[in-house]
């Protein structure tokens, strides 16, 4: 059963959940506050165990920071009070030997340990009329520290490719059997019509003209066979 303490420092309001904090033995306490019965308060005619089943009460103590659960009981002091009782007395509605008694009408009770806690009204007949509640506070799991993810393995960078040698033109030498064609004899330099060395051409039809024609025909007879030999290959 959790240790129950009366804390004047815990805030109290008519909201559903409130902030609860105090300073105990130089330790900082953070917690969530719950109004028992919410807007109905602490009175006859409310199913408090059904109300408690919809809540998640948690306490923790991690790195010196204590998270607690604060329960706020709001009631009329002339009609009700709040008793902390054992499980056996809770089940039998025995209110003659309570563990603790609260009667301010605005009680704030702090649960600082995980476990079950039991409360009932000490006025005659009220516990059997349903004015009681069992609270189960669980220990919240402490968050594990953030573990840095391992560095990713760097991807291997392939070595740069060696540039291939530029293409060289493949020149093939001419076949060895290609005939060596002799060049035709050089034409005579006739020079310019007015300059020296230019021979005098006789008029057409003269004997000199006929001799020149025969000379040209003879030269063609020498050149033509060589040209035919070239094209034949």
Characterise this structure.
With 233 residues, this protein is α+β, with helices and mostly antiparallel strands. The chain has two domains: 4-139, Cupredoxins -  blue copper proteins (Immunoglobulin-like), CATH 2.60.40.420; 182-233, no CATH class. It is built from three helices and ten strands. Strands 1, 2, 3, 4, 5, 6, 7, 8, 9 and 10 form a ten-stranded mixed β-sheet that branches. A hairpin with a 2-residue loop joins β4 and β5. The longest helix is centred in the last third of the chain and has 26 residues, at 207-232. Residues 1-19, 21-29 and 142-148 have low confidence and may be disordered.
How would you summarize this macromolecular structure in one to three sentences?
With 233 residues, this protein is of the alpha+beta class.
Radius of gyration: 61 Å
Mean pLDDT figure? 70
Query: Uncertain regions: pLDDT < 50 for 5+ in a row?
Result: 1-19, 21-29, 142-148
How many helix segments? 3
The CATH class of the largest domain turns out to be Mainly Beta
**Overall number of structural domains:** 2
CATH H-level homologous superfamily name of the largest domain: Cupredoxins -  blue copper proteins
Q: Would you tell me which CATH topology of the largest domain applies? A: Immunoglobulin-like
The biggest beta sheet reads: 10 strands, mixed
